[in-house]
Design brief:
Helices cover about 35% and strands about 20% of the residues. By secondary structure, the chain is an alpha/beta fold. The longest helix is centred in the first third of the chain and has 26 residues, at about 20-45. The model is unreliable at about 1-15 (pLDDT under 50).
Length: about 475
């Protein structure tokens, strides 16, 4: 199908092959892309560079590692500089400001491309799964060379070949896919920790959320594939894994004879070399008593749970289609804290949902005080085209929303500061993640609770674990001393 001179195969899924064959085909494409990149190298007189910029969540960050792995295999030198010969934006569309940032930055890339016409600009990720976005880019931004979606990133080698050979925009976006392709090359950002996808997509359709539309239906990976990946990561020096999915608690549903999420955690726990296990995100409606038991008994699962509440008003939760009410959520939290008194809990909250009133915001603020979160990410509701909430009437003015948001934020900060005090003077194990940005004589480590601690050290400590005495409470992080 052709549209405005672009090679437009959006919403088709014609040439799908079973994953082993598909993988072999993409391997072949890596070879062909490699030859084209070599040609480019000769022309430029240097190794061509590629820069991948990630917007959005951990899921996108993991996808970017796969994209970087492929680019490196094709002969590009990876760079953080957007002056690179190829710039790829892996986009997010969960709120409109994420989209606006991408449009703004595309303008800058266009200016660069005017000076260096061989520069290639590619877009992928959640934002381009929206037809209105494709429409806008294909009609107003002809300087973009390649657009592909969330369902066909495994075809990136082939798309690279097409882009490098074409003189027009290539668009290849699929609506959904039942397929999971295993074993793509990966270039990890960190040597010592890694995300591991356990499922893709989402079936929950919270009324405000665009993720199910842009990431498709929920698909779990086979546990044997997940465990094989974790084992390989461990053999490669990774000691911390984060299991990723939009709703990890419903892992395995729809797969015949597959284990549940708590059982999967128990299997991951058995992998030698893995010292820390994290997971994201847990939907409260599917969090089972078995998960609480497994977490409480585990040596490796970190003492941190991200449990998005979204609102403290049962009326709003119902309109959001979250499938729990305030009481149910607070009861779950009480059971978690009973089993794990030191558990750090973080959450997500939306303010300004259509139909929400200032009284509902008061209920959210009172829930935050009761729940005593270690931290909360607060967002102003952003209408997303095609979601049910986008056509619901709103009850509050911008002023009321802003005022409620600020009051909520100050309570979130107050409770977070209170919670962090329990760590004062304790000795905790920290995994050193890098050098401190401000002080070259300090390293930055992360505790199991997800709290950061800065302490004296050097580069040789990165990726290792140290007991650290938490001396100075800086509000949201600590300055400590190696014990
Ligand atoms: N699957 C996760 C959330 C993924 S999106 C879960 O169910 O918890 C991350 C967060 O973005 C959500 O928890 C929500 O708080 C926020 N969010 C999603 N859609 C939004 C919208 N339209 N406006 C504002 N915030 C939104
Ligand atoms: Fe969005 Fe809800 Fe799915 Fe989370 S569970 S991704 S908020 S629809
Ligand atoms: Fe954004 Fe897509 Fe993640 S919309 S939050 S990058 S799943």
């Amino acid at each position: 199908m052709s549209l405005l001179g672009t090679d437009y195969s959006a919403y088709t899924s014609t040439d799908r092959l079973p994953s082993a064959e598909e993988l072999a085909r993409q391997e072949e494409m890596i070879g062909r892309a490699g030859e084209l990149v070599l040609g480019l190298k000769e022309k430029l007189g240097r190794v061509p560079t590629a820069c991948v910029v990630t917007f959005g969540c951990q899921m996108n960050a993991r996808d970017s590692e796969k994209l970087c792995g492929i680019l490196e295999r094709c002969g590009y030198a990876l760079s953080e500089d957007e002056e690179a010969d190829l710039v790829l934006y892996n986009t997010c569309t969960v709120r409109d400001n994420a989209n606006q940032r991408v449009y703004g930055r595309l303008g800058h890339l266009h200016a660069m491309k005017k000076k260096h016409p061989e520069k290639r600009i590619a877009l992928c990720g959640c934002m381009v799964q929206e037809p209105s976005v494709i429409e806008r880019i294909t009609t107003t931004m002809p300087f973009v060379d390649l657009i592909f979606g969330t369902h066909n990133i495994y075809k990136f080698p082939e798309l690279l070949v097409r882009m490098l050979e074409a003189d027009h925009m290539i668009v290849d976006v699929w609506k959904d896919t039942p397929e999971i392709v295993e074993d793509l090359p990966v270039k990890r950002k960190y040597a010592f920790k890694s995300g591991v996808n356990i499922m893709f997509g989402c079936n929950n359709f919270c009324t405000y959320c665009i993720v199910p539309y842009v990431r498709g239906r929920e698909r779990s990976r086979a546990s044997k594939d997940i465990l094989r990946e974790v084992e390989r990561l461990a053999a490669d020096g990774v000691s911390e894994v984060m299991l990723l999915g939009q709703n990890v608690n419903s892992y395995g549903k729809g797969l015949e004879g597959e284990v549940s999420f708590p059982q999967l955690l128990k299997e991951v726990e058995k992998v030698d070399g893995i010292r820390r296990i994290r997971f994201m995100t847990s939907h409260p409606k599917d969090l089972s008593p078995e998960l609480i038991e497994v977490m409480a008994a585990s040596e490796k699962i970190c003492s941190h749970l991200h449990l998005p509440v979204q609102s403290g008003s049962s009326r709003v939760l119902k309109m959001m289609n979250r499938c729990y009410d305030r009481e149910g959520y607070m009861d779950l939290l009480a059971r978690l804290k009973d089993a794990m008194p030191d558990l750090s809990v973080t959450t997500d909250i939306i303010v300004g949902f259509p139909g929400e009133t200032p009284e509902d915001i008061e209920e959210t603020i009172s829930l935050v005080r009761e729940a005593q979160y270690d931290n909360a990410f607060t967002f102003i509701y952003s209408p997303r085209t095609g979601t049910p909430a986008a056509s619901m009437p709103r009850c509050m003015s911008d002023e009321e929303i802003k005022d409620g948001f600020e009051r909520l934020l100050s309570v979130v900060q107050e409770t977070a500061r209170m919670r962090v005090r329990r760590f004062e003077g304790r000795t905790e194990e920290a995994l050193v993640e890098g050098m401190n940005d401000q002080d070259p004589a300090m390293v930055t480590g992360r505790l199991g609770s997800n709290l950061l601690v800065h302490f004296a050290g050097d580069e040789s400590m990165i990726g290792k674990y140290y007991p650290v005495k938490l001396r100075e409470n800086k509000g949201f992080y600590f300055v400590g001393e190696r014990e």
